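Objective 1b. Sequence-to-structure analysis of MFS transporter.
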Amino acid sequence: MTDVRLPLRGIVPFAAGSVGMGIWVSVPGIFLLYFLTDTLAVPPLIAGFALLLPNVLDIVLHPTVGQLSDADRAGRGSRRRLMFAGCAVVLAFVALFAVPPGLTGVPAAAWVAVALIAGNLLYSFYQVSYLATPADLGIGYHERTRLMGFRNLVITVGVLLSGVAAPLLAGDDGYTRMALLLGAVMLVAMLAGITGVARLDRAAPGAPTEPGQRGRLLAALRDRQFRRLTGSYLTMAITMNLVLAAMPYFARYELGRPAFTSVLVAAFMAPAVLATPLWVLVARRWGKQRSLLTAQAGFVAGCLVPAFGAAAGLPLLIGAMAVLGVAFAGMQLMPLSMVPDVVAASGKASAGSYTGVWTAAEATGGALGPYVYSACLAAGGFVAGTQSPAALAAVRYGFALVPAVLMTVAILLQRRYTLDAVSRTARPTRAPV
């Protein structure tokens, strides 16, 4: 079973589904904290808490959804029913930015928090089941990397385009228009992803999920290799979401160019698009563990340049963003390709439980990243408008030095993962088209 080579007619729509996921993750990740503090006049710590609380609830939510997804596959043979339900996340995405006129401060933060709670629930239905697919299929080590390479390439393109388009569509007061347009793209992409999952299931069916395995979640939590990988990924997720949340602040308050957010996003994401296929090749030569550690080290190096702020000069800052983007591509591809390896090594057909824990860590990182940055802003005395020197230093160092420290911690955690030393599979053969 593990010598199967997946057909493009399944891979392409599967990868397209990640465009919708990328919009849900990136647009709120980049703009929601800024939208709260600078448009809705929410104090930084309250804004950070409004984003933190809904995502912390995912620590319980996602593993439970993972068990539901496993049960659905055991009973129905697929996870697609939950994925269809998850497409309703589009409604929550629109609600995040369609705040009623006149609602500001704490009430506005409450509106956003409620919409985010609903959105996270719906998104988990789709995300957990989608990411369980590589572990469900009868494919091997390198084919998992190939599949996730396609997926990561497409999601990075989606993040790039949505990250650049969102501020242009929103302008100063067009956030609802932006959410409606991007929400429509989300829906189309997520439905394509469901089609892709169905085709991949037919091309490379894996071992069926057995019903009644109540210990699946505990098995995932007790898996030492999985805990090490998840701990590193959680720290990376915190770091990446902090950097994304900080970009609009760095553009406006450090560079003095609010519209430059789109340039920073493009300088970050465009190299990531180009680098993803190269990381697939690097992983085949070096293995996933060594490749991931290299990407993490490159990210730490790239973070040091923005610490100098505008004094570093735009060419050097853009170059640093490109380095971060190349590293980001590797840090997205390798861990997501390693999770199916861990599931395969466990000998249990319970991918939903593993991915439920994994996406809970991802969601927690999505919450803690902006919250850590909001705490940096609060420590510097940040208020919307003119900033003190201490506040400007918080904007700059929170964007540069804090991520460098966090990524160093991720490297130390990742070095404890040893499963990648397992032998790799034989040369694959093509599946039926």
